[in-house]
Design a protein that fits this description.
By secondary structure, the chain is of the alpha/beta class. It has 9 helices and 8 strands. The strands form 2 sheets. It has a 5-stranded parallel beta sheet. It has a 3-stranded antiparallel beta sheet with strand order 6-5-7. Strand 5 and strand 6 form a beta hairpin. Helix 2 crosses helix 3 and helix 4 packs parallel to helix 5. It starts with a strand and ends with a helix. The chain binds BIS(adenosine)-5'-pentaphosphate (AP5). BIS(adenosine)-5'-pentaphosphate (AP5) binds next to helix 1, helix 2, helix 3, helix 6 and strand 6. BIS(adenosine)-5'-pentaphosphate binds next to helix 1, helix 2, helix 3, helix 6 and strand 6.
Length: about 220
Amino acid sequence: MIYVFLGPPGAGKGTQARYFMKRHDKLAHVETGQLFRDAMKRGSDLGEQVRQYMEAGELVPDDIVMELVEKRLVGAALDDGFIFDGFPRTIEQGERFDTLLRQKHRPIDAVVYFAISDSAVVRRLDGRRVCTNCDRTYHRTYDPPTEDGVCDRCEGELVRRSDDSPEAVRKRLQEYHAKTEPLVSFYREKGSLKRVNAEQNIEPLRNDVRDALDL
Ligand code: AP5
């Protein structure tokens, strides 16, 4: 199965994707933002290429993103299932992704659109904290760790993501509305869009995502 999680930054795409990944062994999570953050941590050429865009809250150029996704899919058994989280993010990426999947004879099964207001996004990103060691995500109010600032899973330090600063969040929302939101109509016209109300708390939202994925 091929699923796409589409929506603004902070809508809860990663939180939901990680939940379903844990319960479905064979499902793979392709989170382009995390792949770029890993590359930056390693100090690779790709990391250096994308750093300036990520830190400013701008989208990474389409050619760089497509190269990363194509590499990720080389030899992959698409039958096992993939959640693409935060990809595609422009109409050009959407069209190039369609071509890639056509070559592999695999249509997208569902595009889950996480609908949420900008004000809720700002609250979520303002309170988000991420473990510097294992990358687990928390929220100071909505999903707090047991001990403030410490990861429950590995006792790593919890910090704010560098692109969760108020200026970067404003830019990310602008980029989303200008370049990513048009994909909502793109996929609605293709008949694959399933809208969920992402303003809900984590558990009720999970039920709606499960229905949308038909899992
Ligand atoms: P990326 O890492 O993909 O960031 P994003 O899309 O901006 O998404 P986030 O990770 O911020 O949010 P999320 O929806 O996963 O929310 P989360 O579950 O964490 O991309 C980062 C950057 O990489 C981009 O800006 C761009 O530069 C680049 N990039 C990546 N892909 C690209 C592409 N395809 N093209 C070009 N550039 C690309 O939840 C947020 C918070 O809310 C957490 O604290 C969580 O605990 C809490 N929370 C989650 N769900 C709920 C809920 N239901 N109720 C209350 N709180 C909740």
